[in-house]
Design a protein that fits this description.
heterodimer; A: mainly beta; 4-stranded antiparallel β-sheet; 11 strands; B: 6-stranded mixed β-sheet; 12 strands; 0% helix; globular
């Protein structure tokens, strides 16, 4: 079974530019998560989707970050405009359902460097 | 609010030593899950274990064991007879509706 796919793996941009990340979850997984992992810290949840609806986006900086999951499968996360402090690894995860006992499976992440 | 604390930032051991990674959590919820992930140098988070708040039985899986103590709000992870391949960052976390991760413990196992 294929795991969670993410692209690109690496991205370098200058501040104030825009960037987008793509995630394809494990087939059949209804719930998709985006996390931000700053160097030396644990992952921080940005947004959680159940199918194509948002379950939790309380920690998403909505003035610059946006995410969508239009058909309940793939998802994109966008940053516009980027700031230096957005340099981090952006992790996508998926689970069968949005219940606390479900295991989240993570993709390899996209490493973003903002100069 | 939920909080997970991994007080040990870095641990270094020599191969074959036993090592325990500490995890302390805070939550007001009575139903929650605790978990551990491993993040090797490649960067991908690998699931290790999940435990629900009503099950305080210790668990052993090969060289790995976990000790859950609700009285001290701890969920510690022990690796017995450590190996170089165990070198990674280990994250403890809590899910009571939303996942919260600790900041990780970097384990280095030297040959």
């Amino acid at each position: 079974e294929a795991g969670v796919a993410q692209s690109p793996r690496y991205k370098i941009i200058e501040k104030r530019q825009s960037v987008a990340f793509w995630c394809n979850p494990i087939s059949g997984h209804a719930t998709l998560y985006w996390y931000q992992q700053i160097l030396g810290q644990g992952p921080k949840l940005l947004i959680q989707f159940q199918n194509n609806g948002v379950v939790d986006d309380s920690q998403l900086p909505k003035d610059r970050f946006s995410a969508e999951r239009l058909k309940g499968v793939d998802s994109t996360l966008k940053i516009q405009p980027a700031k230096l402090e957005d340099s981090a690894v952006y992790l996508c995860a998926s689970s069968l359902a949005a219940v606390v006992q479900e295991t989240q499976y993570f993709g390899p992440g996209t490493r973003l460097l903002v100069l | 609010a939920q909080k997970v604390t991994q007080a040990q930032t870095e641990i270094s051991v020599v191969e074959k030593e036993d090592v325990t990674l500490d995890c302390v959590y805070e939550t007001r919820d009575t139903t929650y899950y605790l978990f551990w992930y491993k993040q090797p140098p490649s960067g991908e988070l690998v699931f290790l274990i999940r435990r629900n708040s009503f099950d305080e039985q210790n668990e052993i899986s090969g060289r790995y064991s976990w000790n859950f103590q609700k009285s001290t709000s701890s969920f510690n992870f022990t690796i017995t007879a450590s190996q170089v391949v165990d070198s990674a960052v280990y994250f403890c976390g809590l899910n009571a509706g939303k996942s919260t991760f600790g900041d990780g413990t970097t384990l280095t196992v030297k040959p």
